[in-house]
Amino acid sequence: MTTHEFDVVIVGAGGAGMRAALESSQHTRTAVLTKLYPTRSHTGAAQGGMAAALANVEADNAEWHTFDTVKGGDYLVDQDAAEILCTEAVDAVLDLEKMGLPFNRTDDGRIDQRRFGGHTRDHGKAAVRRACYSADRTGHMILQTLYQQCIKQEVEFFNEYYVLELLLDTDPQKAAPGTPVSVAGVLALELATGEIHTFRAKSVIMATGGSGKVYKTTSNAHTLTGDGMAIAYAAGLPLEDMEFFQFHPTGLAGLGILLSEAARGEGGILRNASGERFMERYAPTIKDLAPRDMVARAMANEVREGRGCGPNKDYVHLDLTHLDPEVIDAKLPDITEFARTYLGVEPHNEPVPVYPTAHYAMGGIPTTVKAEVLRNNTDVVAGLYAAGECACVSVHGANRLGTNSLLDINVFGRRAGIAAAEYAAQAELPPMADDAAASLTSRIERLRETVGTSGESTRVAHIRSALQETMDRNVQVFRTEESLTEAQQDVATLREQYAQVAIHDRGARYNTDLLEAVELGFLLDLSDVIIASALWRTESRGGHYREDFPERNDDTFMVHSMAYPDEHNVKVDTKPVVVTQYQPMERTY
Amino acid sequence: MTATSDTAPSSDAPPLRVRLKIQRVNPEGTPEHAPGEEYWDEFTVDMHATDRVLDALHKVKWEHDGSLAFRRSCAHGVCGSDAMRINGKNRLACKVLLKDLNLAQPVTVEPIKGLPVEKDLIVDMEPFFASYREIMPFLMPAGETPERERLQTPEERARYEDTTKCILCAACTSSCPVFWTDGQFFGPQAIIGAHRFIFDSRDSGEWDRLEILNDRAGVWKCRTVFNCTDACPRGIQVTEAISEVKKALTTGNV
């Protein structure tokens, strides 16, 4: 076992992690740990754009952007955080341009901007061009540009190091409110060798991304198993607003592969089996550019009421056929290639079959606007930070607007890097027990040695697909107490099976069988939290729609959920929403 | 056995029976094979017509042999994790549809060539990334940093757009016969990585990079075999980009 000592350890090398590293590595010894290689991170799969009120192509300002973010999040957004997000957005985009990001340009050479769902002029009057973009591969360009800057700055990466445990100096749930709790480091499995490494650190930044693999149909990578959220939770920290999961309206039907909202931003139209532009009925003003939760629900509703397309009437059509093929090829090259490659559909002259796909966790590790991780509603864990999808600031509230996540990772990744470095500069390295890695090491050894006894039910793949099936069936766009309870029972059964889980690979090196088994444990933990939070919230808001409670209930539920680990159960508490200037209104578009 | 790929859409199409012939090596050895011994392993799986080679590999791993090691992440051709040799050609396993292959024959799957094999289909990527780092793949602008964005016309941007698409999957570099035999050669990826900045109007480090590429390990080793262009899963005109770099060196004009 090897022990490393750093000022700052960053877990995850996507947009948030690398943006943080560019700040912290200027001033402190920083290590970035990733279970992949940095350029494999799922930031690279983001397509349509990054929001910022540059006003390069039409009038716009940060206040309109803030309003849209708050309304888009169905008023569960912390408004102080949204103001920061939208105000710092302009510099976040300009910083990336200065780093070399090849944004699309206007004829006079400035950064071009396009329309996106829920982004409007003057508080909802019409769609506004706010998304800065690079064709339909904006996330790819952000990931590459940040990686290139990390090379320039000689950031130290530990590639294919899988962080499995977060070490705190005190159990955060046993510590009395107001008493100090500090981070001490992380434990990681080096995939190439199977060795467990201890990383002692003054500051740790969690930037591990999403958890879409709790669902079967998802735009997320195989590797997005909510690791950071799950290890924070396992360390006794709460998770905020986990009932809010975004289903992106336009996944390739049956596959879940993402087709950017930019397709609708550029003029694409959703149609049902009779060719009707059905969004006119659901959002008369901005139609197909309504926020994702509303569009996804509308699509699911069309299918449910028998107006779906195809032989099984189980999807709708994304129609781009009226657009100039040259515009499609120039501005949406990747997503149209996905349609050709994976469905054999030519978007120039055929509509593309689409259906909602699990896309983004609005919830996550609760943080302050300085990215400090909260252990309850008021106390932060000293030296611990989180940013990006694994965190909940909360700028997305109950529903994230498209292009606000690429913004989030840059604004709050940067803030996390600055805060972590500042803290590390004045902190001592916390002590760590010699046997800090003992329990993890024996857990990994046990997993590696377990021989399956009861066949199919102890296989990783079997348990995982059963989990994803029940989550898709019961915890998707529409939810009821009955469906959630069924999912809860299913997860309990799967947990029992997981206790006996058996893998085949007994080796130490590149044991990806073992890796998948660990990931599955995280998925099960997070599913429990998502379900418990969704059962608790007996109202409908943003991405969380309870058919048995179809109205928003501001009297009781304009609060964040805070899910705490409590023995083997989930205890759901609340945290107030920060309201600065926008009182909740009815959410129509 | 019925196929239940986790990504297959609801389809009434008949299953595809696929034989996979996979080149394997286990550094720690197995009961049948010595540590480091290369061998072929065969599996037969039933798949859907919409499934890709990656789905078949997953089916093997998830239902037959959990020790099969390969990298993958996004599963739709944008992260660059799963470059491998499929029927002798460098491809991303997540972009090759099974129905597009001749299934009368086994589908052969091997690790990409020219990089040390770690286990089964996993190779050591470090030499590849080291070459990329060497060409200084970051913007080196001249002059004062402006308050707003640096201006760049759509035409200026179009000049280097193609090479910005690179996902660092190594399919090009590991398809290059010069790279296989010459341990010094940067390989095509590093050259297009440099191209992306050399032809960016905002950059002024072009001659620093061109000097590196003019070196004996650089661009002149390219024999214009076009394997790299065929291998690129992003459709980058790799050989053409390399030619542009050669031309800049011979003419002195960027």
Summarize the structure.
The complex is a heterodimer of chains A (589) and B (254). Chain A has helices spanning 15-27, 62-72, 79-99, 138-152, 227-234, 262-265, 279-282, 292-304, 325-331, 333-343, 404-426, 438-449, 460-474, 481-498, 512-536, 554-557, and strands at 2-11, 30-34, 50-51, 113-121, 126-132, 156-159, 161-168, 183-190, 196-206, 239-240, 245-252, 269-271, 316-319, 352-361, 365-366, 372-374, 380-386, 391-392, 478-479, 545-546, 559-566, 569-576. Chain A is α/β, with parallel strands linked by helices and 589 residues long.
CATH architecture of the largest domain in chain B: Orthogonal Bundle
Q: What would you call the structural class of chain A?
A: alpha/beta
Look at the structure and give the mean pLDDT of chain B.
93
What can be said about the biggest beta sheet of chain A?
8 strands, mixed
Q: What percent of residues of chain B are in strands?
A: 5-15%
- Compute the average pLDDT of chain A: 96
* Rg of chain A, Cα atoms, Å: 23 Å
Number-wise, the strands of chain A total: 22
What is the overall shape of chain B?
elongated
Q: Tell me the Rg of chain B in angstroms.
A: 21 Å
Features:
A: 589 residues, alpha/beta, 8-stranded mixed sheet, B: 254 residues, alpha+beta, Fumarate Reductase Iron-sulfur Protein, Chain B, domain 2, 2 domains, 5-stranded mixed sheet, two-stranded antiparallel sheet, 29% helix
